[in-house]
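#dry-run=false #mode=assembly
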Amino acid sequence: MAAQIDRRQFLGRVSFTLAGSAAANLLPVSLLQAAPAACLVDAKAWPDACGDWQLDDICLAYPPYAMAVRPAVPVAATIHAAVEPVDMHWVA
Amino acid sequence: MFPSTGFNAPTRFEADIYDCEVWGKIPSDIEGNFYRMQCDFQYRPPQNEWPTGFNGDGHISRFYFKDGNVNFRARYVKTARLMAERAAHKRLFGVYRNRYTDDPSVKNLNRSAANTHMYWHGGKLLTLKEDSLPWAIDPHTLETQGVWDFYGKYKATTMSAHPKIDAETGDMIAYGYQAKGDLTKDVAAYIIGKDGRIKHEAWFQTPYVGIMHDIAITKKYILFPVIARTTSEARLKSGEPMWEWDGNLPTWVGVLPRDGDGKDVRWFKGPARNTLHFLNAVEQPDGKITMELPTSSGERDPSQIRRWTFDMASRNKDTFDEEVISTANGVLARMDDRYLGLPYKYCYVGNRDPSLPFDQARGGNNGGRVSNQYLRIDVTNPKAEPGKYFVGPVQSLQESCFVPRKGSKGEGDGYLMGIASNYETMSSELVILDAQRMEEGTIATVKLPFRLRGGTHTNWYGAHELPPFKG
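#status=ok
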């Protein structure tokens, strides 16, 4: 289905390919520390594995409502460069 | 403007779709409205806000089913808060439930974001946030009508997002906590008739100021759990969001006879438990009350479905007992609401099963960050193998909702609906299952050409429950 209908393109989203390492250098530390496998193996490891406490953790919902769930296609470096630090948790 | 591309980025739009794209065939005995709420953000949260979905603006969606077709509509709830911010072209309200962080220009304005839940009752569709009174909206157009105070008779300053509807009487059992203002221990409980008129009111105080997000009801009682997530004036003045976990505090559950007043509350104590949402409570023949709920032992421990038992026949016992009935780790458990407060069997809950596949090439690096199945648990026989529905290798499920088959009466005779987040297409889908045969997969899927960020709660109202649309 993805090959037939690119909904990101439809929505006008910018989605350029970017080397993973370059993207990683621009991501906040809390995201880089995310280790999904650890979350599944031992939920007690969540504070370390999934970043700092978030208000969403009140109800243990997963993924948290504010988690920046990243799309498969990374964001362009040009986009990252335009993002203010406070907005970085919204950026894939 | 948010530059986000993440799935949970704010959507910031309103939408109408006539005749949604449907894969499969929607049964003709589904006729009515599936509502769901998400916290969206018209404007960027304050810079000292911790990442949260709870402090966004209420954004309600409606899927309208008729004759196998589906129309979709999404609207912001036009609260005083949102409209003030639109007028200013910027965010004015501060961090989660903290007045000290608001812009002075909105000091006396209603803080409600109306972003948590919705209930149809008394001729109003009420959108709810537990720190304020409800905002009423039109159930068809979703246009905002205004703050609703139950004909001027609702005196508390807050109303929880989780009132209960007694399926037999049509009464709404509503309550507000911190009901005389921020940080107060006061709780107000209301019985509201199906005409929207308040029939009974009771006030009492809690042992400490803890979160009271949800309640449970039986035929005779209302159960008010006070959870060990507390707050203080000092915390608010420091500029932090309201709640902080304190595992040294006990869990208290106040049991109030529905027709009682505040002095009739009987308190039961237990160890600190992290929980927000409760499934159901039932009076047993031996005089005990049993209550099932998802909960965890500590702030970060895995959630499980447990049963708390309150011995109302004992005069001296002031503690409740606890047993684990399922290790399902989902926290948003639902049931056939026609059996609320009555003996029942089925719990429907999302669950993360790490043994199920996630395709990172197509879905991104989200393995483990997904609720990948719905479970149907028989709470009367929890050792029985639960019914299971696996959503697929690139999706995550949001809260489900049970939809009675048109004309049915038996518990569980109907459908299960829920929004799936498709991380491959970055769009959302409404999955429809036969609740009695969910292992067989979807009967139909309603495809949206955009994403709906993580949602909070859902409800279903059949066409016969709402007035006809006069548009």
